[in-house]
Amino acid sequence: NPSTSQLYMVSMDNGTEDAGINLSGKVAFLNYYGAFGNLTTPSSTQPQIGFDGAYFEPGANCWLMTNRCYDTTTGQFMSVDPSLLLLNQPYSYAGALPTLYDPTELYRFAYGDPANLSDPTGLGTEGEGPCVTFGHGARHIEGSELSVSEVEDAIRANIVEQAASSNLSGSFWGRVTIKGFTVEFRAYVLPCGTINVGTYYFR
Fold this sequence. Notes:
single chain; mainly beta; four-stranded antiparallel beta sheet
């Protein structure tokens, strides 16, 4: 549509600002969002395309992040991670194992840290290296001096470091040392680019 009503959308600052630019190069509107996507621009109507580059679905009152809808009022997706179907494992982007800890992890957005990360497709967090998810390794360290979060944070950091220096693909493994304990992990890269750590255990 070549008319002057045509606008180009520009997203800035990790998706928390977006502007509509007309064909003359002038800003037609500017919207601001909170970290979780709630519209904070005074007296502004909800745009059709906006937060994190997503499309707003008024019927469901949510943002369509390509593969699933995201509700800004709860800071959660409205359905589980579609990657669950690839592995038949209930994981998400928060790093915990939902069946053992918190089932809401299946729905969390951007590791619960949208100020620094984003998830425009609903399949994996962007912003600090690859999206890393975890399977059933937590059960192997129960009763030890190490917590699940510190082990998985260390593994995630190791994978991000590996990904920065090489093109990870297929299956791979690694080791991390925490408080004198060596933990080995087995991981593989999914077709969507997410890296799933199937298991980890003490060596």
